[in-house]
Amino acid sequence: MSTDKTVAVPLPTADGAPPDAGRPEPRTDSHARGWHGMGWGFVVKLVLMALINAVGIAVAWAAWDVGSWGVLIGIVLLTAVADWIYFSRRRLPGKYLYPGLAFLLVFQLFTMLYTVYVATTNYGTGHNSTQAQAVDGLLIQNERAVDDAPTYPLTIVERDGQLGFAVVDAAGQPLLGTAEEPLAPVPDATTDGERVTAVPGWEVVDRPRLLGDQSLQQEVLALRVPASDAADAGSIRTREGTRATVYRSTLEWDPEARTMTDTDSGVVYSPSDDGRFVSPDGAALPVGWRVGVGFENFVRAFTDSNYAAPFWRITAWTFGFAFLTVATSFLLGLAMALVFNDARVRGRSVLRTLFILPYAFPAFLSALLWRGMLNSNPDYGIINDLFFFGARIEWLTDPWLAKVAILGVNLWLSFPYWFLVCTGALQSLPEDLTEAARIDGAGRWRVFQSITLPLLLVATTPLLIASFAFNFNNFVIIYLLTEGGPRFRDTSATLGHTDILITMIYQISGVAGGRADYGLASALSIIVFLVVGAISAVAFRRTRKLEEIL
Amino acid sequence: MRTAAIPVAAVATLALLTACGGGGETPEATPTDTATEPAMTGSITVWVDENREPAVAAAAETFEQETGVTVELVQKNFEDIRADFLAQVPTGEGPDITIGAHDWLGSFIVNGVVNSVDLGAKADEFEDVAIEAFTYDGQLYGLPYALETVALIRNTELAPDPAPATFDEMIEVGREAGTKLPFVINTNGTTGDAYTYYPFQTSFGAPVFVQNEDGSYTNELGMGGDEGQAFAEWLSENGMDGEGLFSTDWTYDIANQEFADGNAPFTVAGPWAIETLTAGGVDVAVEPIPSAGGETAAPFVGVQGFYLSAQSENALVATDFLTNYVATPEAMRALHDADPRIPAMSSVAEDVSEDPVIAGFLAASQNGTPMPSIPEMGDVWQHWNSAESAIISGKGAPQRAWDKMLSDLEGAIGG
């Protein structure tokens, strides 16, 4: 409550403090700044700002609750800056830029920084979380029910804040024990034949109380009552509060030394630099944790024999694919646009609509349909059946044909876009320029080459660059059409001839199954980002030159 | 302007106070499902997919009435659960319980996100293969509820007699039927489908990983040696450059369509495909898969069940829900009715096996072995599928392609 007052109260004061100092006439004041006559702007603004503050405070509160300090600091800063900008008299550009900047920070910059962070860790299968959680996991996995151990009906009892387990053994004898005291007979306990109902001096913890009290549940789950005086007899524990069984743990965690000890063999496992518990002879426990590895992932992307050779081939095909697919679809779209821009073509509007259809289908659907149509068996694959006289052509299994198939399908999917863009651009070109050129005696080709195309390129080059960047990461078409196949036969990595960098990253990330290596996948995606970023920057610079020439 | 400042201050403060009051409700809702305050009634979160949701909701209702604990069901895509569970359990945002497939267990183990489950004597009420599937290194880590496996599906009109015991005899029957194909099987197109072909592989005595006496898998590959080579040779002989009994042209849809159209009297498929296969009015019988290599053809059995999070703050309540409210014949029956798979609880399986299709799949599953859940299994599929696809299509010489697969796998598993 106090936070919002400190935000709210100084604002009007700040507003009123320098009333006359170089301020413009009140009449020129925006209607959003105060209540002037019939202006509703100020009310709208207050409502909006109140909403923004409410959301900010709600998020901050939730972040405080779960202890996410980064989120807390971030949201408090964002909210405070929003208040400062919108209640301040100056900061006019800030008022326009702030929403965009805030979303950029939250959705782009944060993701990128997090990717950079992951790239410097060994996050992946076996290194999934923190050391504390790895310890939890290992202790769970190495505490087992003793073979043929009986299951006892359990009653949880309490005395002076100390919990105990009261059970009835196979002979019907009531037993009681605590964390320090091993199970021992309590002859004066009352039983109902199955379980203990009362023990003198102890209070029975009933079920509603147990189910309603989370910290009590934790204590009950953590309680181990030694089964007997013998050290290796194991101890009684319960999993759900009504039954107890004898368990034995073979691993012991030493929080001081931060080591794990195998109580059977006496082997001590100490934490290693790569985030695992390792014994002196090199054996490691299965669960590890996430640690920083610096630039190792970047080095591996270029040097690991499994990835290095495919990496360069995949990079080459990624460039080839992105360039060719943009070039072919642009040229086809342009050609179509030129043809249909000619007034002599009849039924232009109908034809134009038809040609835009492939663009209207969802790419997912089209890609899957094409995959079926490209089946090499002419009985199933309509392409071979209709266009290649029923010949058996291995569209998706031959390395080169698979590339052709991808370019072809992507051409079919994306030329309507260029058709639309070019048609629009052509129609906006000034007629008098071409007319003047014709009067000067320029031929059709000459007009196109010197007038139409350069003017068209001014409008379309930024789109061409954007399309290149998009296709550089065109995951959907590759994944749905060929899944990257056919596979490379000369490497062990599960990568193929039509994989592009983004599908390679997906493969390595292990999201789909198999061994995950998020660190390496993040490092690779940063490399891809740098490449796409560099190309786009250079290309846009060149576009500007293009405009200057004209 | 100066006079305006006072109402401005009042309105702004009032608005912000209201905003604070309004915003306060959202965070207040959060503590009830986190650990910050000892709520009088607890709450557990269960991830469940669309199909199973109503059945779990029914079990949850009984639990809520008897214990006062709220069960919050979160509906998720089944395919997303594995990765989400791995990512969210460590952050504390994960569920207390999730539905899942048993072959995820290996990665859950090495990532330390799963808790063990103690069914005690109740474990005997389940099919052995189901308990075996959720057991890792001698310890149970989930509550199984359903099985699934592939079996031989026969078109009873084209092949009226019970299926023969060997692959060759079955093909003979298939040829006599005079249909376009004697037999059709999903090869997943050029990707390859080692899962569907696996019963034939095991009939040559070449399991994917070597098994211990108790049926658990070691991480030593079992596909090498003469047995594996014999299977590779057999795939090649019957492949597209040989007899033409297998083809990489057959995707899941194409194989099902050919069978449903009556173009093949036999196919190998799972219960999930029965609806498609019989949609065209074909009557089917479900039988164990014939042996190709002389030994029993053992398909993979997939088991579905419930996992408990290692980081659950409500582990006691969650375990209570699983072992005392879901592991009951009534709840298991409800799960079967919601999503008809083979029940993992024996008594329920018997109840529902009046349906001959389910009885057929149950019989086939009793021949089968659980799909390995060891973490290495995730690395095997792609190499394995593509080697089989290469051999069937004739692109790879059987010996060489199989050996390359084995050496790639050694590399992937060892590294």
Describe this structure in words.
The complex is a heterodimer of chains A (550) and B (415). Chain A is of the alpha+beta class and 550 residues long. Chain A has 3 domains: 2-119, no CATH class; 146-249, Periplasmic binding protein-like II, CATH 2.40.430; 305-549, MetI-like fold (Orthogonal Bundle), CATH 1.10.3720. Chain A is 55% helix and 11% strand. Chain A is built from 19 helices and 15 strands. In chain A, helix 9 packs across helix 19 (518-549). The model of chain A is unreliable at 1-27 (pLDDT under 50). Chain B has 16 helices and 16 strands. Chain B folds into 2 domains: 43-148 and 302-370, D-Maltodextrin-Binding Protein, domain 2 (3-Layer(aba) Sandwich); 149-301 and 373-414, Periplasmic binding protein-like II (D-Maltodextrin-Binding Protein, domain 2, 3-Layer(aba) Sandwich), CATH 3.40.190. In chain B, strands 1, 2, 3, 4, 7, 14, 15 and 16 form an 8-stranded mixed sheet that branches. In chain B, strands 9-12-8-13 form a 4-stranded mixed sheet. In chain B, strands 5-6 form a two-stranded antiparallel ribbon. Helix content of chain B is 46%, strand content 16%. With 415 residues, chain B is α/β, with parallel strands linked by helices. Classes of the chains: A alpha+beta (550), B alpha/beta (415). The interface between A and B is large, with 94 and 93 residues.
